[in-house]
Amino acid sequence: MAIVGLSFGRHIVELLHSTPASEFIELSAVCDIRKDLAETVGRERGVRATDSLEELLADPKIQAIGLFTGPYRRAELIRTVLHAGKDVLTTKPFELDSAEAEQILREAQQLGRTIHLNSPSPEPTADIRQVLQWRDQYDLGALVSARGDVWASYFEKSDGSWMDNPDKCPGGAMMRLGIYLINDILQLAGVPNAVSFASSRIRTGRPTPDNALLTLSFPSGCLGSIHTSFCVRDGDQYGNGLSLHFERGSIYRNVGSERAVARPERAQLSLVRLDGDSRVVEVASFDECSGVYQWEEFYRALTLRESISEEYINRIVAGVRVLESLRHLTVRRDRSPATSPVEAVAV
């Protein structure tokens, strides 16, 4: 696989030289429009470096492209890669235009090619599987509310990148941090019929917000909310905390100060329910949290020539439609609460 776009892709290069990624995927080349950056990373890892995507697409030995450019109009680049006969691994958020997202995913399906993301992932991660198991095992009933929180501490300056542009980075911190929680909640609650959004700029030097709150309303009556911020430094960054309240119990992921190890790739879950008059608590821990790259699944898709499933297409598009609504809200009314309908898509 070749990695294209090294601002974030450099992190993926590191992952490919450690387990479990290295057990399934071999890095063969790196590419960036900044040729000096590509050459630096290439020397570090002993692989070919180039500033030409076309050069990589012409190489029959390269089976897949890891595309880690910005999300704005990413579908156009993916189309180029697919029609060159390569499969694609990319990152969240997939796109900002839901029509473009759905069209390119269906093109991949028609071409027999695969596209995998880290969020939403092709298969439910271990933590989400445990939530679903507890829900069914203990008959917890309907999901009533879903609340997510994620934060970090940045002191960013404007640099003219896509992260400065409200049209390309709608909601600022919400799009950059909140997409994992958006996809998690949609996987558990279904497709929302409305969203609302509020944001503020506390200390960022960017014109996009560093503190944001998204709320989601679902046809079932479930209500969801997600808070994201680049303004909190407490040693527990990137936790993707999630509180799920069902009719007959609650499930928490990475919530509170009792986490043994505050690592973003680790998930600690607890279930609270009543058994008669007794309050029962169960706990589970996993070294895999939502948002991880499923390297083995990608390897299997490549070797078995598995294309992208209808169910996965629908989950990806559902998340993009939330971001699309967020984009409309932030372009129309900066830094103030607003609401907008979200077109439904089957999940």
TrEMBL record:
Transmembrane segments: none
A GO molecular-function descriptor: oxidoreductase activity
InterPro entries: Gfo/Idh/MocA-like_OxRdtase_N, Gfo/Idh/MocA_oxidoreduct, GFO_IDH_MocA-like_dom, NAD(P)-bd_dom_sf
Keywords of the record: Oxidoreductase
Domain Gfo/Idh/MocA-like oxidoreductase N-terminal: 2-118
All residue ranges annotated as the GFO/IDH/MocA-like oxidoreductase domain in the record: 129-251
Entry similarity comment: Belongs to the Gfo/Idh/MocA family.
Protein name: Predicted dehydrogenase
